[in-house]
Amino acid sequence: MNKQKLAALLAKNESTKLDFKESLSLKTDWEKKELAKDVTAIANSKGGRGYIIFGVQDKTKKIIGINVPEYQEEQIQQIVSQRCDPPVTVKFDLVNYDDKTVGVLTIYKSNQKPHQILHNGSFYLRRGSTTDIARREEIAGMLQDSGLLQYETIALNNVSIDQLDRDIIIKYLEKSGLKIEYDRFENLYPLLEGLGIISGEEDGESYHPTIGGLLVFGNRPQQFLPHTGIKVVDGKNNTGQYFYGDITSMLDKVEDYLANLIKKQDYPMAAIAEAIANSVVHRDYFSYGRETVVYISKNHIEISNPGALYNKSDIHSLLKENNPYRRNSWLYHRLLVLDEKNRFLKTGSGLRRIKDSFVDYGKVRFINNEKRNMFKVILPGGFSILY
């Protein structure tokens, strides 16, 4: 950390990755707990590396400076390693600024989220400029992004296995090249459990769909997972329609609806279809309060879904990536086999293809809103392409 970099940080406002503190004291156990909490909160928040700057008033940004004993960096490293699980990688620097000593704690970007406070078992993150306890779905989302939890294979113990469409399951097994011989569908349960489509209870007799099993093979998943549908809004007439069903049939319905709505002959409908398919397979299904939305406004078509880009990705790298990381890999690989239209079989970056498809229409924008955990694709068009 140098003076120039510190000046750039001081010019910014507090955020999920930047915190200003007037003093640095680690004499009491409470002060040590607060440091560990602030470090894990920044590490757990989306984005790159973060900073806690000591010796600066958080409101006025007036430089106050701190008095730091020689052992302070070693003590900070010790606190973080002993109180955070897994430990967070940090670095502490002292910078002379306006004839005062300012402490800068750099919290490096982590791919081991979520980091937990050991003394109370809590998980923290930043909401704007404040540190807060992470909600259940936020913790689950971090576990999934780190590969520690697979959302799709979680059992839905309140849902009957009869909610699965057996014809779709058989079709999937046959297209997968699995040789199946059975006299009763129930004889396939061990195989389906191994594939993550269903989950058995401890008694070995009762089975239930997994979340992924219901989304891909369910008769009407939205009866039990209401946030998993797709809403299309026609802003011109202030009307909309909500689409239900398993993922492939739901995508078919949305495409048919938009084909009847959008009348401009040379409009790149395939690119819209790809954007919607991407939104379904990459969305954050732990975000229960929001669905995928296609909104047609005066000047553009906006496709939004809960789920900012995961830790390993950013928009710039995704535009060049031929083998991108996928949040819901279980869903992706089932749809890869099952989808008759091969929407998920295309290689390379879908974002790049979408962008290239609209060269003659205007600029395509990709918005990754980490604060709201939202990703948007904004396509040129709007009311002029309707009817």
Automatic annotation (TrEMBL):
Location of the Schlafen AlbA-2 domain: 14-132
Domain of life: Bacteria
Protein name from the UniProt record: Predicted transcriptional regulator, contains HTH domain
Species of the source: Lutispora thermophila DSM 19022
Upper taxonomic lineage: Bacteria, Bacillati, Bacillota, Clostridia, Lutisporales
